[in-house]
Design goal:
The protein is of the alpha+beta class. It is built from 3 helices and 4 strands, in the order βαββαβα. Keywords: Cytoplasm, Phosphotransferase system.
Length: 88
């Protein structure tokens, strides 16, 4: 099983709010991989949980770290970063 980690800065002026959190959680769950998300330097939470993502309080300018464990982890990680950026 492979592991991939990606970091990205959130540019949306309101951070990760309900809609992007829901889109990201859905994509993370659909990936079939184990995915976590964390604010840089903070504790990771399950990326499939909208409430966990919202609980991170991610604001504009925050760096988030995604960790993906599973088959095709590199591809899934890239796709999830794209989902976060497009959801903004």
């Amino acid at each position: 099983m492979a592991t991939a980690t990606r970091s990205t800065v959130i540019n949306d002026p309101v951070g990760i709010h309900a809609r992007p959190a829901a889109e990201f959680a859905q994509a993370a769950t659909a990936s079939g991989c184990t995915v976590t998300i964390a604010k840089e330097g903070g504790a990771a939470v399950p990326a499939g949980s909208i409430l966990s993502i919202m609980g991170l309080g991610i604001k504009q300018g925050d760096t988030v770290v995604l960790t993906v464990d599973g088959d095709n982890a590199e591809t899934v990680a890239d796709s999830l970063v794209d989902t976060l950026v497009k959801a903004e």
